[in-house]
Design brief:
This protein is α+β, with helices and mostly antiparallel strands. The protein has 23 helices and 14 strands.
């Protein structure tokens, strides 16, 4: 199975970021003695490891549009979850209302405190904000509630992502916290959330929920079952809460949450959760009405058994890319990590279709690959725009350090969007007409190394394999060349002709499944011995799908044939 791996493990970071409404860990509240008229929740950015490839994949124009794409998906539901009283709502579904299940699992006390009242007033005045937030939460709440019940934890904690991220799966705070539960990198790793070029477990709906509940349970034990202190510590750290508790004990002061001198952000954090608890517990008392959320699983986890292109996954599930993004926001580049995890979330009503599609999917179709043949005038930026990927991802996939590319160079475009298909035989043959003519040379051809050139770029320029070029000149494949060094170009004796004016074109053929050296030679009307010589192969050599072979083909039109 083909596994696409980047040259480095560094995440690609885009420059443009989007501010989205959340109540995350960096909220600086309004003054405690005045009611906040402005939105009191923190403005946070999208996670920068979501690259332009991801946004292009869901059909939007740039990184600043990814949040709008998810909101557009929410708008497609055609109903409101949160509204003012007096407006018609949806009937209770057959399996019951998930909101009611949450209310029945309340264990925290309703606290009468001015800070809770202030946060409550803001939420009540902004039902549209609540509606957007809970529409996102529809996808995740049933899973979160089930996990809390399994651990015998307060079901009010299912509302904590409202405070943390507004249920935005790609929220990213100024403190570099990410995902529904807003983990920073260090804490995420502490609780087993893998983070690399392919995948960020902080944005994995299932993994991050498990990690968050593990952390909250640990904090509750640290503070003798006081959940308000545990939630406060989730925001500002257990060390800070422990210090303030000890300070109050020494001073003979109360040690409840509201008596501690905590950061301003944390002083608003717990009241937000308590305000949301009150609203969900009795929305009519606040002049609001909540439409029911079905008390049934929204998604199911499917083991796909290996690396998979998420574009392929969306097609197999007959699912929009927006919906797949909303359920699988952990994958940075629309291709899963070859080392796992190998699970993808799909809506439960698409489970059987997707499972059957995965079982029938040939290994060579799990990851889409496209090669772009560089033409005169191409730039990395233009090529990246054409395929909807970032320049950083393009450079990483092709091990390009600078910005120089050369006509005739093949660039790998991995996990390409739908419509970027593998080239057909006719398309491959047509590449011959796109190559720059190369006059036939004799066996004495030499190349003088210039600044910035490498064995690879020289081999590509002369249409020979890097292995044969290195072997002919007694240098290592990864060796360093010197400016002015003279290299012999191998294999050119086979191109000699009595007609010195005849013209050939070099092309690179990407080996496909079922190909053999003899069938390739026949297809392009070249001698097998020539094909072997151009690529430093023997008749016993084994070729594999994806391998590139260099060939010189006569331009029959130019030769007058």
């Amino acid at each position: 199975m083909f596994q696409w791996r980047p040259a480095t493990a560094l995440p690609a970071i885009f420059a443009t970021t989007l501010a989205v409404l959340t109540a995350g860990c960096n909220h600086t509240p309004a003054s405690e003695d005045t009611e906040a008229e402005e939105d009191p929740v923190e403005m946070v950015e999208l996670d920068p490891s979501i690259t332009k490839l991801d946004e292009a994949a869901i059909g939007v124009s740039g990184p600043e549009q990814i949040e709008e794409a998810i909101e557009a998906l929410d708008a497609q539901t055609g109903h409101r979850l949160v509204r003012e009283l007096g407006q018609d709502g949806a009937p209770v579904p057959e399996g019951g209302d998930l909101f009611e299940r949450i209310r029945k699992g309340y264990t925290l006390s309703d606290v009468d405190h001015p800070s809770v009242d202030m946060e409550l007033r803001w939420f009540v005045k902004h039902p549209d904000y609540l509606d957007r937030t809970f529409k996102r939460g529809e996808r995740y709440l049933h899973h979160i509630v089930g996990e809390l019940e399994a651990r015998n934890m307060p079901l009010e904690l299912a509302l904590l992502p409202v405070v943390e991220s507004a249920f935005n799966p790609v929220a990213y705070s100024r403190a570099r916290a990410s995902g529904l539960w807003q983990f920073i990198s260090e804490t995420g790793r502490r609780y087993g959330l893998k983070q690399n070029w392919y995948y960020d477990g902080r944005r994995d709906v299932v993994a991050s929920t498990n990690a968050a509940l593990d952390y909250l349970q640990f904090l509750a034990e640290e503070f003798d079952g006081d959940w308000l202190l545990a939630v406060a510590a989730y925001n500002c750290g257990e060390a800070r809460v422990a210090r303030e508790l000890e300070k109050n004990r020494r001073a003979g002061k109360p040690t409840d949450y509201f008596s501690l001198s905590l950061p301003r952000e944390t002083r608003a954090y717990v009241p937000k959760l308590l305000a949301m608890r009150r609203i969900v517990g009795d929305p009519t008392a606040q002049g609001l009405a909540f439409s029911p959320i079905p008390n049934a699983p929204y998604f199911v986890k499917v083991d796909v058994g290996g690396q998979l292109d998420l574009h392929v996954a969306a097609e197999l599930a007959d699912l929009s890319k927006e919906e797949l993004l909303a359920l699988n926001p952990a994958f940075n580049h629309w291709v899963t990590d070859p080392d796992g995890p190998h699970q993808i979330l799909v809506p439960i009503d698409r489970h059987e279709r997707f499972q059957a599609g995965i079982a029938a999917l040939p290994p060579e179709e799990r990851v889409r690959i496209v090669y772009h043949r560089v033409r005169r005038g191409d730039t990395l930026g233009a090529i990246a725009d054409k395929y909807g990927i970032s320049v950083a991802a393009l450079k990483t996939a092709n091990k390009i350090r600078g910005s120089m590319i050369h006509p005739g160079q093949d660039l790998l475009i991995a996990a390409a969007p739908k419509g970027m298909k593998l080239p057909s035989e006719a398309e491959i043959a047509s590449l011959v007409e796109e190559e720059k003519p190369v006059r036939r040379r004799g066996s004495s051809d030499k190349h003088v190394v210039r600044r910035g050139e490498t064995l690879w770029s020289i081999a590509r320029r002369h249409g020979v394999s890097m292995e044969s070029l290195a072997h002919s000149n007694g240098v290592a494949r990864n060796g360093t060349l010197s400016i002015g060094q003279v290299l012999s170009i191998p294999g050119t004796a086979q191109l000699a002709s009595t007609d010195s004016s005849s013209v050939s074109r070099s092309t690179t053929y990407v080996v496909r499944r079922g190909d053999s050296l003899s069938t390739i030679a026949t297809k392009f009307r070249v001698r097998l011995t020539d094909l072997l010589g151009w690529n430093n192969l023997t008749k016993r050599s084994v070729i594999k799908p994806g391998q590139r072979l260099v060939m010189y083909l006569e331009d029959r039109r130019r030769a007058g044939i």
